[in-house]
Amino acid sequence: MRVISGTARGTKLESLDGLSTRPTIDRVKEGIFSSIQFAVPGARVLDLFAGSGQMGIECLSRGAGQGVFVDSNRDAVNIVIRNVKACSLFDKARVVNMSAQDFLRTTKDEFDLIFLDPPYNMGILDEIMEKVYQITAPGGIIMAESELGWSLKKEIPGLVQKKQYKYGKVLVTKFIKENEE
Questions:
Q1: Please, what sign has the CA dihedral across residues 172, 96, 68, 61?
Q2: Positive or negative CA dihedral for 94, 92, 109, 101?
Q3: Where are the domains of the chain?
Q4: pTM above 0.90, yes or no
Q5: Residue 123: enclosing H or E segment and its boundaries?
Q6: Rounded distance, CA 63 to CA 40, Å?
Q7: Using the 8-state DSSP alphabet, how is residue 11 labeled?
Q8: CB of 89 within 8 A of CB of 64?
Q9: Which of 51, 68, 78, 97 is most deeply buried (CB count within 10 A of its CB)?
Q10: Which tens digit of pLDDT belongs to each residue from 51-102?
């Protein structure tokens, strides 16, 4: 697993061994970034369920202004720290060892670009989407990775599903928070 583009291009990233995390495969990552490439420069990025931190790191490498990485697994947090340091991006990163739910409940930050890649088939996306929406800046993008067949169970006014991308057994859904008038 490597950084695809930007200042850290080609840097190899560590990931956790075993099945506790599921790194996004390069084909999926390339598809996501072709969809959001113009939203990245200067963006405030949240990589929730960060794992290795590869999505947030890719954004920082491509010119995002700041990245917040959240994971409840202490080993994953340590890997994110090593990865952002290896990419010389530590000064633009904040790494938080906390559950996604606790972070969403306590943060006062607002983000332009949010990556969600929780464990599949546990209902976590449906549980957190309303709070994620609340911390998304107007015009902001939420990229939610899930199992095939997932769809948001409850409509959130002002949150527009733009597109779904299918990659084998992986579904990536792109949401936009409408600009407030």
A1: negative
A2: negative
A3: 26-177
A4: yes
A5: none
A6: 7
A7: -
A8: no
A9: 51
A10: 999 999 999 999 999 999 999 999 999 999 999 999 999 999 999 999 999 9
Burial class (CB in 10 A: 0-12, 13-18, 19+), 160: exposed
CB atoms < 10 A from the CB of 90, how many? 15
Q: In which element (H, E) is residue 133 found? A: helix 124-134
Decide: 54 and 22 in contact? Cβ < 8 Å: no
Kindly report the number of other CB atoms within 10 A of residue 78's CB atom: 15
- Contact call for residues 70 and 50 (beta carbons, < 8 A): yes
Counting every residue written for the chain, the total comes to 181
Question: How confident is the model over 109-166, as pLDDT tens digits?
Answer: 999 999 999 988 788 999 999 999 999 999 999 999 998 888 888 889 999 999 999 9
**Which pair of tokens denotes residue 68?**
């917040």
Whose tokens are 């449906």? That residue is 126
Assign 3-class secondary structure to 13-78: CCCCCCCCCCCCCHHHHHHHHHHHHHHCCCCEEEEECCCCCHHHHHHHHCCCCEEEEEECCHHHHH
DSSP codes of every residue in 89-121: -GGGEEEEES-HHHHHHH----EEEEEE-PPTT
